[in-house]
Amino acid sequence: MPHTAPRHRPRWWTELLLIAVVYAAYSAGRLLARGDVSTAVDNGLAILRAEKALHLNAEHPLNRLFTDVPALGIPADFAYASLHYLVTPAILVWLFRRRPAGYRAARTWLMCSTLLGLVGFTLMPTCPPRLLEAGHGFVDTMAQYSSYGWWGGAASAPRGLGAMTNQYAAMPSLHVGWALWCGVMLWRHGRTPLMRTLAVAYPLLTTIVVMGTANHYFLDAAAGVAVMGVGALLTRPAMRLADRVRERLEGSPAPSKSPVVGGGCDTSAGERIPGQRTSSAGADDSTPAAAR
Questions:
Q1: Mind listing the pLDDT tens digit for each residue in 216-253?
Q2: How far is the C-alpha of 84 from the C-alpha of 205, rounded, in Å?
Q3: Which terminus of the chain has fewer CB atoms gathered within 10 Å of its CB, N or C?
């Protein structure tokens, strides 16, 4: 996705306010988008059946591994509960300070994709694997290792605030979507081999974590990638729309029409501009009218 130089460098306080407003709207919308629990469970089971039919069910072996090996499960829970709150804002700040030419497009892409994710939560409430009945073979590692972390057993939210999150918003996985965005930014704007390595490793690690902790299905992760793809396509139109709105609000004058050369006056024969004759006009005046 190519980007052009911004007209002016964004102001940090307006950017901070914009991001805070969008994230607050996203969080509130995600909470209000709670659907019927039975519908969410049915959707989760439908995804699980589809994955088994397609031989894509990687959640079970990863979940058993994280459950049986605390040395893997505990760091995975910390990664799931923390990294998207830390890495994504850190990369936004880095782009703002070090790569201002690409910042606006990157920020707009992230916001468009996040709002698309909210549409997905609303249209398809989905029960994550960890909240399915035990007979389906999943263990909630967030609850299992909650005594080691800052999150509660009910969700990845802080203890006591589990009711303040929508636990049936598994489809799509924005953990994976945001991680992909971070990876693309690191790959595109990084200058070192370490940056390129992290660009690949972070989205892959996040995908493994969301499945191993039984927070998402593989198809949730795939949907997160798809949402980011659609968000990328909407970035340029969204930026053009924002520019038009800004121009309306700032009262930018409409481009003036080119003035009429004659200023409303008619030209005489032999004149290109009213009141101005060519140097040969005097000589032509002595010639017979028929010769003109």
A1: 999 999 999 999 999 999 999 999 998 999 888 887 55
A2: 12
A3: C
